[in-house]
Write a structure and sequence with these properties.
The protein has 269 residues and is of the alpha/beta class. Helix content is 27%, strand content 28%.
């Protein structure tokens, strides 16, 4: 079975309503071009900064989740809604909400690994100053296959994605906003490795680069095949990229090179 995946690499905005208009425009275009599963990038409606996360945060029944639900239902598509700043009590999470063709919520992934780094000569960022870490793995049950959802820094932890593959995921979607230090160094390599190691399609959906923005994202959204090659790759500008997800190819590669079957976990821990 095949289906078409669309990744909307869009620029963010300090104005939520403008961000929604831009997101809707791109999601509608992707649907018109035949994408049945469509994704948005990390923090697409909130500047990526601790100065904004709490102020922009909304509850799970807030207007942005309602907007995404309606958009998915109107277009009859699966929508992996990138991530937004979610308010739950006094806690703030970096959360990805996903919806089925009828607009029903079918997944909520709260970023598990918080981006607390200090790279000499590069970038210092401490998400934990504002955000709370999630605890749960997220697998969407769709009519096509199981789809894993993770967020940005989660990709740095191979065990997390292996766990998704062992739970049945054949596609993993990663809303992610790598920066101009880590992006050029690690983006392509990491996305190909996660696809190859787990013999899944791996789709990383970044924001478009805004040199004048609060946070300068690397862009370069991409889709890697279970063989570890790119089947679609963006540059830094706003655009939509597409990939045909061939589930028979996943099965064939796993049969011919049975990495998952050859595991010996009793020796690893």
């Amino acid at each position: 079975m095949n289906f078409k995946l669309g990744l909307c690499q869009i620029a963010g905005s300090v104005d939520k309503e403008e961000a929604k208009k831009n997101a809707e425009k791109h999601v509608r275009q992707a649907a018109e071009n035949g994408a049945q599963v469509i994704a948005l990038p990390e923090m697409w409606d909130c500047p990526y900064s601790n100065d904004y996360f709490r102020d922009y945060a909304e509850p799970a029944d807030g207007p942005t989740v309602e907007f995404m639900s309606k958009l998915a239902g109107d277009l009859g598509i699966y929508l992996i809604g990138g991530s937004i700043s979610e308010l739950d009590g006094d806690k703030v999470y970096n959360t990805s909400f996903s919806f089925d063709r009828h607009g029903n919520l079918i997944g909520r992934h709260r970023k598990v690994h918080l981006f607390d780094i200090d790279v000499e000569g590069g970038i210092r960022f401490m998400e934990s100053d504002t955000l709370t870490a999630g605890e749960d793995m997220t697998i969407l049950d769709t009519e096509y296959c199981k789809i894993g959802v993770a967020i940005c820094y989660d990709v740095r932890f191979p065990e997390w994605h292996r766990k998704m593959a062992l739970a049945g995921a054949k596609l993993i979607v990663l809303p992610a906003a790598f920066n101009m230090t880590t992006g050029p160094a690690h983006w392509d390599l990491t996305m190909r490795a996660r696809a190859l190691d787990n013999q899944v399609y791996f789709a990383a959906n970044a924001p478009a680069r805004d040199e004048n923005g609060v946070y300068v994202a690397y862009g370069n959204s991409c889709i890697a095949s279970p063989w570890g090659d790119f089947i679609a790759h963006a540059d830094e500008k706003e655009q939509i990229i597409y990939g045909d997800i061939d589930l028979d190819k996943v099965d064939a590669i796993r049969d011919q090179l049975p990495l998952l079957k050859h595991r010996r976990p009793e020796l690893y821990f």
